[in-house]
Amino acid sequence: xxxxxxxxxxxxxxxxxxxxxxxxxxxxxxxxxxxxxxxxxxxxxxxxxxxxxxxxxxxxxxxxxxxxxxxxxxxxxxxxxxxxxxxxxxxxxxxxxxxxxxxxxxxxxxxxxxxxxxxxxxxxxxxxxxxxxxxxxxxxxxxxxxxxxxxxxxxxxxxxxxxxxxxxxxxxxxxxx
Length: 177
Hints:
Shape: globular
Number of strands: 7
CATH class of the largest domain: Mainly Beta
CATH architecture of the largest domain: Roll
Helix content: 25-40%
């Protein structure tokens, strides 16, 4: 790896904010040079009001597959599955804020009672809290390039009580969190 490429890869911030190279082109450059960069998904967690609600839902039998691992079943199969399975995560948007992520373990085919093929995104049970980042509503899931992912919270901050969504949103608006 050359010095300039190493400098470009040191931090997500450099990759995302390089003035002459948009993030998508920078990532394509990195992939072309043979360096593996995991791709992530972002998804709204509908019906949950906190990370604790997501943990409770994923602990229920309805949210688990036959192997006991949490999964999210979606209608669309990711075309970039190989990149997702190379260390990618799903980032959960709760109450308009990205608040946590889970590592994607595998993609399973599921045939619904209606005979339609669906994709079960099988997730690692551990939920990792992230710095909050505001996200507008969207439908389904989206790809989230590595340069756009919020950083994980340090282990010492993971046990902090989560802020009410309104307060967290207001603090994110003014750039405090």
